[in-house]
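Good morning C.,

I know you're traveling, so I'll keep this short. The sequence:
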Amino acid sequence: MTTIHVEIDESLLKKVQERATETGVSVQELIRQTLIKSCATDPERWYKDLVEATERLGGNSGAWKWNREELYDRKVLR
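The tokens, ready to paste straight into the viewer:
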């Protein structure tokens, strides 16, 4: 078995830990199962599952959208 290291932010890790606890598996096992599922299903179904999971996790900005001025009005670009 090969070991890899993946960086994820703390808020995502917390959600993964909560889901692992809910399902009674370790974080490692949950990630392994997710990767197996993503490779075993057809790409369209996997994409739909990904979109559904993203919608369940939130992060929706509502009706607000970036406009060109806001995108380019940053000190680093001046």
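Safe travels,
E.
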